[in-house]
Amino acid sequence: MSFCLSPCVPAGVSSVQEQRERWDRKRTRTGRELVQSEQRYCEKLDLITTYFVEILKAKGTLRQDIRESIFSSIKSIHLVNQTLLGHLENGNFGVGFDQFCPHLHFYTAYVDNFQTAKKILAVQLKKNKAFRRFKKLQEARPEFHKLKLEDLLPLPLERIQQYNNFLRDLTENTSPDSPEFQQLSRAVSAVSEVAQRIQDNARSHENHLQLQRVQKLLKGRKTRLLAPGRWYIREGWLKMVPRKGTETKPKMFFLFSDILIQATRCSPMHPTNGDKLACQRVYPLKECTVDKVFGHTKSQGGLISLTFSSAKLLLMSSDQEDINDWYRSLCLAIGRLKTKSTVVHRREELLRPPLRAATHSQQRAPSPSQIHSRKRVMASEQGTESSMSNYRPPAAESAGSASKKIKLSEAPSGRSVENQFFDPLLLPGMREQIKQWSQN
């Protein structure tokens, strides 16, 4: 026996209607949250423009260039958002954001200047006593609700992230047949670009701080880490297995997007550099190959081999998860470098005939003057070859080079590999791998 809730309405129509009702409920809830948060946002923007920007401009406490560096385009942002708030309060979400997005360049300028604004504000609070006193008096007003200027300045960056979420929810709960759907979709794309810019700037700033931190850790100023396009990846202590020696040596390694730095701890007795590291070598990753020598299975620890154009490293760790992370990070960094250095030829260049064939196809009979000039060139070349064949290097030079070759080829191999490593952390499997690596 079948049962139907509404005999007058087919089941398919009922499900479509229920879906539309759910969309309307979610859209109404999202719109209400958007309007309420926009009202609070505009109130806080009004605090900045009224009690800081305008009064500072009238009093002259800060120079114009310093004031503009701190507050950037905050006044223009306030005016644009007041217009947007009027559309949102009337329920015109699509129209409001369609008119708001062409003014997103004010937000872009504010985003790009934000780190500079923080630095200049910190400098002024440290050196400008009048501005420090003015800021304290303004923040004591009841309208601020104990908010500081440092809490208000990041608001436009946070608001862009909130717009990104609100617009996606509104678009998902708007019928594609509605004309407002296209307006909201365009707004999602435009706001997402600014949100991505905020994230990229934050990552760049964090990377800059990491480069500065590592630079301060290294003794001296010979190693310059602050280079364009360089990214910090990771750091850690690894044991370096020497080709000849009695034990492994712990070294600190810093991995960046283009280089690997090997460092060791300075003497703790040093008066100024006791807490720093001394840079021993900088290895470029562009010509590096990395291989996992030991640690493929669930064993304790592992070994990785790094081969450079002028050096070869064997690095060990008793923590297999740590050595696996190093292996993955090195492979990713090297892979990205090789991808960037790959030259992509256009199809026309690949199909272009070789120059030699073109030259032979266009070759003509030489004139008598050209034959005469060729004979003179050949005669001069023969004289040069005869003079070079009579040249002999000095005896001292040839003897020195021969002695260097003998020293390199007949260098003593030392003790056997099995007796070179007495580190208790070395497992039998590691010793066999090290033996093969040393023989190669």
UniProtKB/TrEMBL annotation:
This is Rho guanine nucleotide exchange factor 39-like isoform X1. Residues 231-335 form the PH domain. GO terms for cellular component: plasma membrane. It comes from the Eukaryota. It comes from Clarias magur. One of its GO terms (biological process) is positive regulation of cell migration. Residues 26-201 form the DH domain. SUPFAM superfamilies: DBL homology domain (DH-domain), PH domain-like. Signal peptide: none annotated. PROSITE patterns: DH_2, PH_DOMAIN. Pfam families: RhoGEF.
